[in-house]
Design goal:
Blueprint (H helix, E strand, L loop, with lengths): L3 E4 L10 E5 L5 E3 L8 E4 L8 E3 L5 E7 L5 E6 L4 H4 L5 E9 L7 E6 L2 E2 L2 E3 L13 E12 L2 E10 L2
Parallel strand pairs: 4-6, 5-7, 6-8, 7-9, 11-13
Antiparallel strand pairs: 1-2, 2-3, 8-12, 9-10, 12-13
Length: 159
């Protein structure tokens, strides 16, 4: 039927045993199960090294306190984001960092070390960070052409 299914419980006849389906149109359906994603944990402050290597996963947590103002994160991979994505593809990258000073924040990204223009939720790039706890930065990246991107960026402070 142009689909690929994965079942548990030893049976293929019962739809109650189906856990995963790849449809003929390329869709993926998960049935009644959790979706677990790896979170890469790093202890070198992004203000020292702002590389977000997606080979480590789409969610990254930095346990070292962010320092400095106007920090830039570079989103990259071993093959390069421009190489691994086709025009029309989209990725979502989540970066979580420990903070201890409102003067520390991220307000810019690069993709494969090339500057991009972000569209920040709320209309403008951050000008401060949280004073304690964790700050989260989310980047929805749409490839619109060769090394051409539309980026929706968001900062959430926990303090």
């Amino acid at each position: 039927a142009n689909t690929l299914t994965v079942h548990t419980g030893g049976g293929f006849d019962s739809s109650t045993n189906e856990r995963l389906r790849f449809t003929s149109t390329g869709g993926i359906t998960l049935t009644n199960g959790e979706l677990v994603e790896k979170c890469y944990i790093n202890s070198t402050a992004w203000s020292t090294n702002g590389d977000i290597n997606l080979d480590n996963g789409m969610v990254q947590y930095n346990s070292a306190n962010l320092a400095g103002t106007n920090n830039t994160l570079n989103i990259t991979s071993s093959t390069g984001i421009n190489t691994s994505m086709a025009t029309g593809d989209m990725i979502s990258v989540t970066c979580i960092t420990a903070v201890n000073a409102t003067t520390a924040y991220v307000n810019h990204i690069t993709i494969d070390h090339i500057a991009v223009t972000e569209n920040w939720v709320g209309g403008s790039a951050p000008t401060d960070g949280g004073g304690s706890g964790l700050d989260t930065y989310a980047f929805n990246i749409i490839k619109t052409g060769s090394a051409a991107w539309k980026v929706i960026a968001n900062q959430v402070k926990t303090s």
